[in-house]
Amino acid sequence: MTFETDILVLGGSGVDTVVQVPELPLPYADSYMIRPGIVARAGQSGDFVAVSVSALGLRTHHVDMVGDDHEGELVRTLHRDRGIPFTCVPSPAGTKRAVNLVGPDGRRLSLYDDSRAQETDRLPEAVVRKLAAGSRHAHVVITYPCAYALPLLREAGVTVSTDLHNWDGENPYHEEFALAADLVFLSTTALADPERTMRDIAERGRAKAVVATAGAEGALMLVDGEVTHVPAVAPPAPVVDSNGAGDAFAAGFLFGWLGGEDVRRCALYGAIAGAYACTVPSTRTDAVGRAELVARAAELPAP
Questions:
Q1: Which of the residues 73, 77, 116, 212 has an alpha carbon 20 to 30 A from that of 188?
Q2: pTM flag (> 0.85)
């Protein structure tokens, strides 16, 4: 079967207003003078994944709900400039947005505008079915309307990945995504027992692989009942912002996964892409390219 798209990304588009702060947590004060300034740029989870897999040479299509507003134009411009096809479904509540406070060490605190999502939000079935029919794989962001697309993707027969981000292993909202995906990413940040949560996902769901990222400590990967440690990779430049690192890891992993690579090689690609993302200033939306990723992997010990 011939596919038009390698990876269909669902959801996760939006705009971040980036504020560089002197430290996190930020002590209370009446005001702060901010340099190098406050910048609004397109790029949330789905955008980062789409940009990252596209930079790796995978044919990418992104679909999401976007408002007819300034933020929506920033998102559309990002995709247009990167040559990424983008299907925009009108969002009455407006384009999703957040404020990111970024500390000198690259850590961040994200404040999401929850008013930009409504319970009635849906990606049209006909749109999802058509795009899924021409795609090899779908990466589903856990933003609200995407949960309703999961059964449609399963009917279409595409493999599915998702990123649960900082799930605590208990919030029921994330479970539907966790149990419907063939490949699950999440962070260890809020997990009391990462291995137990990973095994629970694999035992109750469809996942062939579950990967829990742990920042500078690397990641844990569960495949065929065995948990292995994935070492972190040294960033190629100073760390300036951790935002988007998990999305980049997922993109690197998917690059190997769709290329038929061994899961350990997939994890290495993910670690390299995630480390690169930490060196990108918070005001930009850049990703490692295919040639650099493969060359860097060749320099490192075989997994």
A1: 116
A2: yes
Question: Which tokens sit at 103?
Answer: 């500390």
Q: What is the DSSP string of the chain?
A: ---SEEEEEES---EEEEEE-SSSSPPP-S----SS-EEEEE--HHHHHHHHHHHTT--EEEEEEE-SSHHHHHHHHHHHHHT--EEEEE-TT---EEEEEE-TTS-EEEEE-GGG--TT----HHHHHHHHHTEEEEEE--SGGGGGGHHHHHHHT-EEEEE--S--S--HHHHHHHHH-SEEEEESTT-SSHHHHHHHHHHHS--SEEEEE-GGG-EEEEETTEEEEE-----SS-----TTHHHHHHHHHHHHHHTT--HHHHHHHHHHHHHHHTTS-TT------HHHHHHHHHHSPP-
Nearest CA to 100 out of 10, 158, 14, 201 is that of 14
Identify whether the C-beta of residue 230 lies closer than 8 Å to the C-beta of residue 271: yes
- Kindly report, residue by residue over 95-128, the tens digit of the pLDDT: 999 999 988 888 889 999 999 988 889 999 999 9
Whole-angstrom distance, CA of residue 179 vs CA of residue 119 = 22
Quick check: 129 and 158 in contact, CB under 8 A? no
Residues 64, 88: Cα–Cα separation, whole Å: 6
Question: How would you class 173 by CB atoms within 10 Å of its CB: exposed for 0-12, middle for 13-18, buried for 19 or more?
Answer: exposed
Sheet with 159-163, edge to edge strand ranges: 86-90, 60-66, 5-10, 135-140, 159-163, 183-187, 209-213, 219-223, 226-230
- CA 142 – CA 152 distance, rounded (Å): 15
Share of the chain above pLDDT 70, in %: 99
Residue written as token pair 């559309």: 76
